[in-house]
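Work Package 3 (structural annotation) set out to generate three-dimensional models for the target panel prioritized at the project kickoff. During this period the team completed the workflow that converts sequence records into discrete structure tokens, so that structures can be stored uniformly alongside our sequence database. As a representative example, we reproduce one entry of 279 residues exactly as it appears in the project archive.
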Amino acid sequence: IQVLDPADNFRTLAQHSTGTGSNPKDIAFASPQRAFVSRYDSNALLIMNPLSGQHLGTVDLSAFADGDGLCEMDHLLLAGEMLFVSIQRLDRNYWWMPVGDSYVAVIDAATGELIDVDPETPGIQAIALPISNPYSDLAYDPTLNRILVSCVGLWGVGDGGIVIVNPFTLRSEGLLIDEATAGGDIIEFEILDATKGYMIVATPSFTTRLVPFDPSAGTVGPPLYNPPDWVINDIEISPRGELFVADQTPTAPGIWIWDAGPDTLITPAPKSTGLPPFH
């Protein structure tokens, strides 16, 4: 974990190890002195002090591992007193293919204990997803009062979509929109309001495009940006209601900005980042 000071030109204040070869993927802060770190090459979710670097404990997720011995924990979302963890379950021995079932594990953020979402079934159960391979961030949508995550399933196959997870019943509630409607794998999305959202769609021809959609109706509009290569990997909506798009085009890498809602392009050219922006 690298700690930067934005008040001092983003000077590095400290760097803390998450364990040799652990491959940290995401971090969620329960307090300034307590954070959870998902580690892709481990079944032990790390609890640490992000300021001192002290390791405070781990949460064992090995019960969700597939045949290669790892569960592939990915993104984190802290909502209220619960930490949600996406569990991909990919077979590293066979081209990183999803094994067929993926989950969202639920952890008591105060105690670090796994929460059993189905006490009637033996063992500790996680939230079963209707589609395998959760890929995007876990996002809480205040309009729906639900957690959303894009599951891509098999790449290049129209078998995925944005999955709805109820954080109160700890159950999946189906799809907000599917890949067949989107026109490809949904690798990232942002929700503006009940009737407007945006997503990055990876097409079967290995290009990416920016597509607006209506979360309520489950319909899509024409692409706002349709480059000829795979160059879009992340989008964000700013507090001012602007849509930021990271464009990795090698000849002009940078950030496009749209006025979210009316979809008016604000920047006539991408704001240069020098090197290709990824996240």
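Residues 131 and 189 are 17 Å apart (CA to CA).
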